[in-house]
């Protein structure tokens, strides 16, 4: 048995050698514990998966019907080779979990992606005490501070009303898993009908089947051939933005919903009419708050702006360093 850290970085991802499992591995492994169903965390091809009960339907839709997925309700421990593993709400998307790993009194928590602000479509983030906290840092720069989501939803509703009054559709681009449903749950469905791209509607279905209430939606592809779209809110994944699918909404106003819209730092989205900075990740104060709440002695930082976060923590007397949990330097779409 190794004397190394309880969880270590390997070429396949974070690995608990004693428990013999990986967390969000990017290669095929025998046993994968999955924090949530986003593509950069849940990859198909592993022999067995362990994930939260709450997110089973969503994960199943991503991994396919034959994937072997076992689940745990939040908070319920399970022994894996004598290592006690439990999953705790991360507040990121439906079923998202932090992974708590305990062995001989030593506790590590892997956050996965998380946000502190509450979300009508998933369980609220739960701080978990630990010795070592592996935290994401997607928005780990002091410039990232989110406005209260009520303000953002008001802005989205106002824009939708203006589009409706101008006889236009209002087309929102939002990541199909999580963000789209959060937008649906947050807008005022009294303003007009809501249509969704099939990629979004597929996840809406899984959310509803999981007990999450969403307003009624219609499939764009099932609308009558000569339908006019005035007053409609249309929700589509970012990938649809420059596709021929969009030609039917040529008179529409477009918007992107993403934390990146706070600075419009991503050039790709400078052509949309509106940017609504709503994120499913913690902002800078949220990250620091979460780190504080864990009481961790050691903080390992991954995902996004890791260096400024590590520097800040070190300058404030914390033991912190960067770890790599992604195969490539991908940026979270959400
Ligand atoms: Zn995610
Ligand atoms: Zn992520």
Q: How would you describe this protein?
A:
The chain is 20% helix and 25% strand. It is α/β, with parallel strands linked by helices and 334 residues long. It has 2 domains: 178 residues, Ribonuclease Z/Hydroxyacylglutathione hydrolase-like (Metallo-beta-lactamase, Chain A), CATH 3.60.15.10; 128 residues, Rossmann fold (3-Layer(aba) Sandwich). The strands form 3 sheets. A 7-stranded mixed beta sheet has the order 7-8-9-10-11-18-19, with helices on one face. Strands 1-2-3-4-5-6 form a 6-stranded mixed beta sheet, covered by helices on one side. Strands 14-13-15-12-16-17 form a 6-stranded parallel beta sheet. β8 and β9 form a beta hairpin. It is globular. The C terminus is likely disordered. Bound molecules: zinc ion (2 copies). One zinc ion binds next to loops. The site of one zinc ion has 6 residues, from loops.
CATH architecture of the largest domain: 4-Layer Sandwich
Strands, total number: 19
**CATH fold call of the largest domain:** Metallo-beta-lactamase, Chain A
Listing every helix as H and every strand as E from the N terminus to the C terminus, the arrangement reads EEEEEHEEEEEEHEHEHEEEEHEHE
At the fourth CATH level, what is the homologous superfamily of the largest domain?
Ribonuclease Z/Hydroxyacylglutathione hydrolase-like
CATH class of the largest domain: Alpha Beta
**Distinct helical segment count:** 6
| Low-pLDDT stretches | 328-333
Alpha carbon gyration radius:
20 Å
Quote the average pLDDT: 94
Q: Kindly estimate the percentage of residues that lie in beta strands according to DSSP.
A: 15-25%
Strand order of the largest sheet: 7-8-9-10-11-18-19
Bound molecules: zinc ion
The rough form would be described as: globular
- Termini separation comes to 39 Å
Sheet of most strands: 7 strands, mixed
The residue fraction in helices comes out at 10-25%
């Amino acid at each position: 048995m190794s004397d190394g850290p309880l969880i270590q970085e390997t070429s396949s991802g974070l690995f608990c050698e004693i428990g013999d499992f990986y967390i969000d591995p990017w290669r095929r492994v025998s046993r994968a514990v999955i924090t949530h169903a986003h593509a950069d965390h849940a990859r198909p091809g592993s022999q067995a998966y362990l994930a939260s009960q709450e997110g089973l339907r969503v994960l199943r839709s991503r991994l396919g019907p034959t994937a072997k997925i076992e689940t745990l309700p939040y908070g319920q421990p399970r022994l894996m080779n004598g290592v006690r593993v439990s999953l705790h709400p991360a507040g990121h998307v439906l079923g998202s979990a932090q992974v708590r790993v305990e062995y001989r009194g030593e506790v590590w928590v892997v956050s996965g992606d998380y946000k502190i602000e509450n979300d009508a479509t998933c369980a609220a983030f739960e701080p978990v005490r630990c010795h070592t906290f592996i935290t994401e840092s997607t928005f780990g720069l002091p410039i990232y501070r989110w406005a209260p989501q009520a303000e953002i939803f008001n802005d989205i509703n106002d824009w939708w009303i203006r589009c409706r009054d101008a006889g236009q559709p209002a087309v929102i681009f939002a990541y199909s898993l999580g963000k789209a449903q959060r937008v649906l749950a947050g807008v005022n469905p009294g303003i007009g009908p809501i249509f969704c791209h099939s990629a979004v509607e597929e996840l809406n279905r899984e959310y509803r089947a999981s007990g999450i209430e969403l307003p009624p939606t219609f499939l764009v592809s099932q609308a009558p051939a000569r339908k006019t779209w005035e007053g409609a809110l249309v929700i589509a994944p970012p990938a649809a933005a420059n596709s021929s699918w969009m030609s039917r909404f040529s008179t529409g106003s477009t918007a992107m919903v993403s934390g990146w819209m706070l600075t419009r730092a991503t050039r790709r989205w400078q052509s949309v009419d509106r940017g609504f900075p709503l994120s499913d990740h913690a902002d800078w104060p949220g990250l620091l708050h979460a780190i504080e709440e864990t009481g961790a002695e050691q903080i390992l930082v991954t995902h996004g702006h890791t260096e400024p976060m590590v520097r800040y923590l070190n300058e404030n007397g914390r033991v912190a360093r960067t770890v790599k949990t992604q195969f490539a330097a991908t940026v979270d779409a959400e």
